[in-house]
Backbone:
């Protein structure tokens, strides 16, 4: 029987499915629910030291439906990080670890560009018993107006410095959560890993405008008639997330062997997860999928991933992690490979013709195949 159990940065996950930071990990009650349903780990909603600066609005979600108007394929949100007091969160982290000592509880943290603040938030969370950290350098809306979130994640120098502050005091593994709102995701990833993070998570949401209401002419989600660009998630972002995970895994293999990747963006099935692992992810996260299908979706996802492994006779996740990475190359190389294949095919059919005519000779074969490969 294949196993989904995996150890990543020393953390023992019963399966690779981790709740991504957001509404599904917004308080103790739902985090406990996730562990009861069998999630491999939970990344809580992002916390900061002073929640009084975090003021949410409603509505804060916008949805894109498939042509059948039934299925949500894209989801925009303008939700901020947690607006619940930090003290309450610390208490909830402790209670959660008391109830689920084996559960992997990861604190997602965000602060302003201030060394003392980052050190304080790390120390207080680890004293409360969390197992690891995810640094939110990637929320694309609201927080960047305070030079936080994606504003930090888009600046490799700032990123490296902050990761260095965190790594200097963290006694637990640290993952940096990367923004897709950048041209080359390798640059901030390299900075985070140079700064000492054990791994990265990718991707956070893609800056977006979900649509414009054709009756009111107002862009959505409309708050008192106005909006601000938000973060796009769900199924529609999976191809972009896969591309970025491929780029990050390749960088990790070449420059930072041993560091890890937690892949996310549009994962809803075990088959989606298999694709992220084939492109080098150690764990996979699900956020919007849980909002669409409920916490219990982890069970079919585990079954589907196990079925995929059984079909290919993979015993462990390690057996297929990164297995599809060697099949990426340049476009020029695709052209060369295709030309070679066509030439070989023509040569093979020339052999058949010559043989069926019963006139095969070494010289003629060489002449004919040369002519064919010249087109
Ligand atoms: C409503 C909502 C709130 C989110 N809040 C956070 C957050 O507080 N911190 C964070 O790091 N990511 C947050 N995210 C981003 C998700 O963790 C994830 O990176 C992104 O949605 C892509 O994955 P998905 O398609 O599985 O949702 C949020 C996403 C949504 C939809």
Residues:
């Amino acid at each position: 029987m294949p196993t989904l159990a995996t150890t990543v940065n020393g953390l023992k996950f019963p399966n690779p499915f981790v709740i991504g930071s957001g509404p599904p990990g917004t308080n103790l009650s739902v985090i406990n629910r996730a562990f009861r349903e069998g999630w491999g780990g939970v990344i809580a909603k992002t916390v900061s030291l002073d929640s009084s600066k975090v003021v949410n609005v409603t509505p804060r979600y916008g949805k894109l439906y498939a042509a059948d108007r039934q299925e949500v394929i894209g989801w925009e949100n303008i939700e901020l990080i947690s607006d619940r007091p930090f003290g309450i969160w610390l208490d909830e982290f402790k209670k959660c670890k008391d109830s689920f000592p084996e559960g992997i509880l990861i604190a997602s943290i965000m602060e302003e560009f201030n060394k003392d603040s980052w050190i304080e938030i790390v120390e207080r969370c680890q004293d409360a018993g969390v197992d690891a950290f995810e640094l939110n350098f990637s929320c694309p809306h609201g927080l960047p107006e305070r030079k936080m979130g994606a504003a930090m994640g888009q600046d490799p120098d700032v990123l490296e410095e902050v990761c260095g502050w965190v790594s200097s005091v963290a006694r637990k593994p640290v993952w940096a959560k990367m923004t897709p709102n950048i041209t080359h995701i390798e640059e901030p990833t390299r900075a985070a890993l140079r700064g000492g993070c054990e791994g990265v998570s990718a991707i956070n949401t893609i800056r977006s405008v979900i649509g414009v209401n054709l009756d009111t002419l107002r862009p959505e989600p409309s708050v008192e008639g106005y909006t601000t660009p938000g973060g796009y998630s769900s199924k529609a972002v999976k191809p972009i997330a896969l591309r970025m995970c491929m780029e990050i895994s390749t960088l990790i293999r070449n420059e930072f062997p041993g560091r890890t990747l937690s892949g996310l963006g549009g994962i809803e099935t075990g088959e989606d997860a298999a694709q992220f692992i084939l492109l080098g992810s150690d764990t996979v996260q699900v956020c919007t999928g849980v909002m669409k299908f409920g916490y219990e979706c982890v069970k079919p996802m585990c079954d589907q991933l196990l079925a995929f492994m059984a079909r290919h006779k993979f015993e462990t996740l390690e057996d297929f992690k990164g297995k599809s990475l060697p099949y990426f190359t340049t476009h020029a190389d695709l052209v060369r490979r295709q030309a070679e294949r066509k030439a070989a095919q023509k040569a093979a059919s020339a052999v058949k013709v010559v043989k069926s005519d019963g006139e095969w000779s070494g010289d003629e074969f060489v002449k004919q195949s040369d002519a064919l490969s010249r087109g």
